[in-house]
Amino acid sequence: MRRWSLIAVGLVAVLVGAGASLAVESPATVKQATPRVDTVPVPRPEAGLLLVWTSGGLPDGLAQSVSQLTDVVAVTSVRGGAVDLRRSLDADGRVLDQPADGWAVPLDAIAVDTSTFPTFVPRESAPPIRRLGPGQVLLGSTSARLRKVGPGGVLELLGGAVTVTGVVDDAVIGGAEVAFGAEEGARHGVTVERYLLVRHRASRAATERAVRDLLPAGRAVRFRAPGETPFLRDGDAVLPQALIKDRFGEFAYRPAAGRAVEQDPAWVAENIVTAEVPILGRIHCHRAFVTAFAGALGELRDEGLGYLVDRPGYAGCWAPRLVDVGQPLSRHAWGVAFDINVLKNTAGRGSAQDPRLVAIMRRWGFTFGGSWLDPDPAHFEYLRPPAR
Question: Per-residue pLDDT tens for 303-315?
Fold first, then answer.
């Protein structure tokens, strides 16, 4: 059985501080990805295609209602969720990954309608999606590389084993790690309608108005066209989990109380460090994240803007937890997100962050939660290398 290497992965190469070693036997064999320094490719604009998503999932019946609009040519609904990997095998039956009993590797999954979704992907990617059947799964290209699994391989998931029938470009499946047909997805609990892809003949503005009229009053919605976001998916203001893993590594986990989780202590010992940074002092983050975080804080200090960060309002960086009970892992579990000025920036409300602070954080490669559809104005997390 191949052991997972514990080489720190990331886009920031300079370590600030030193990690405390944990003298604990690893409960899982955890591998790391090869370091990547490229940015996410953005597809070219394509007229007449629109992504529609709402926070927390789509209202019941929205896909059917949108399909009946006069100028809508085609609609497909994509379901999403998290699944747990217990073991993976190659096409010859050799074990590749096998966390210890009770532990699992989290995977970001979608489930698609195999009759309608293929019309929204490049021609060459349509056949493997149409052929998806019971007990089968497709992998995104990044996921396949991380898993080292190709066609004929097997993923043993909490909901049962599935055979890998193909590998497609990440963008084809919205950056997800695995893609099921709708029926197989339901067997693994991937049932929440996350977003629609819509082809339309009318202008974009007219199509957006028509869709808004179908939503409950006050329901926030986000529309995107190709080229406006790296991946057509819900939650498109953040990197897909596959790309977070590709840059910062992968770990096994198991549930703890509430939304807390336990992580492979060997991964934590290798990747989570304690460092001294400007303004905040001591922090605990991923070793490949620290330099950018420290750089942003240093710029605030050097520009005489350190007072924009309230030290008592710093709520941490690394925190092994889910976004919420029943939801996927937070980016805090990787130690690549942080919350600042939390006392004045409540989740779900408007931002009280100074625009100068936000601009500096964005320049250092962090996405700002205050601009999200479901706002979290105290939250910043890794999105790209610093623009410096």
Answer: 999 999 999 999 9
